[in-house]
Specification:
Length: 251
């Protein structure tokens, strides 16, 4: 019998609206960034990158455009180039928390977890204000990937204390709780994840497995069934093996 589904935690980069912060820029330059934003929304990332590069060629010190370029490259799955741009930016702006955060995301995606951990720690130490919860969440992901569960749990909890509306923080902490066999805590966090998100088959299955480990099959089976209907084959197996023909609805 298979246990809980493993998964890679993905942190979605929020593309900060990149308004023109340089009051003296001309209308054409402003149009370049506006057009780049529109192209990102429509998924035309190469064209968005071209517009951003054109802007940077005129205004090489515009930090918002520099961050935009890093984000676009990452969204294009060109992690190597994104990392190079992040390294270049940090040589010039080594006191900007968000740049360390972005490089941490990139390094984590490249499975360079120790480097990513250092980046998020640096971002936290720079006290990024309202974005601090994201830095703790990112560092928690690094600790989780390194199987340092105590540190991961502490960081996910810190992230939730700073912002209790982020589903991925509860989901990540639920995974740690499951791995450390605190199934009751895992249940609570998976339920909170569903409260804050639309849910997917992995979340429903993992919640079912948490109930199953608590020997609460009556509560587990509706979630196995839900995940099975969404195409989760492990959940279908659990339904066949552990659940009765009549499965109550999810409350």
């Amino acid at each position: 019998m298979k246990g809980i589904v493993k998964y890679c935690i993905l942190l979605i980069l929020s593309l900060t609206p990149l308004h023109l912060l340089m009051g003296q820029n001309n209308d054409m330059s402003g149009t370049l960034l506006t057009e780049a934003d529109e192209l990102i929304v429509s998924g035309k990332l190469q064209e968005a990158l071209d517009k951003t590069q054109q802007f940077i060629s005129t205004y090489p010190d515009n930090l918002e455009a520099i961050k935009k370029r890093i984000n676009i490259c990452f969204l294009m799955n060109n992690q190597k180039v994104a990392a190079e741009y992040a390294d270049e930016a940090l040589k010039r702006f080594n006191d900007i928390s968000e740049l360390y955060y972005l490089r941490g995301i990139i390094n984590n995606a490249r499975q360079k977890y120790t480097k990513s951990l250092d980046d998020f720690t640096e971002a936290i130490e720079l006290k990024p204000g309202a974005d601090l919860y994201k830095c703790y969440l990112g560092r928690g992901v690094c600790y989780l990937n390194l199987l340092e569960y105590d540190n991961a749990l502490a960081d996910f909890t810190s992230s939730i204390e700073l912002n209790d509306t982020v589903a991925s923080a509860y989901h990540s902490r639920a995974m740690v709780n499951y791995e450390t066999k605190d199934y009751a805590a895992a249940v609570n966090d998976f339920l909170k994840t569903l409260e804050l998100s639309e849910g997917n088959s992995a979340i429903y299955f993992n919640l079912g497995m948490s109930y199953f480990r608590l020997n609460e099959n009556t509560k587990a089976c509706p979630y196995f069934n839900k995940a099975c209907t969404m195409g989760n084959t492990n959940a279908c197996r659990m339904t066949l093996m552990e659940c009765t023909k009549t499965i109550p609805e999810i409350p």
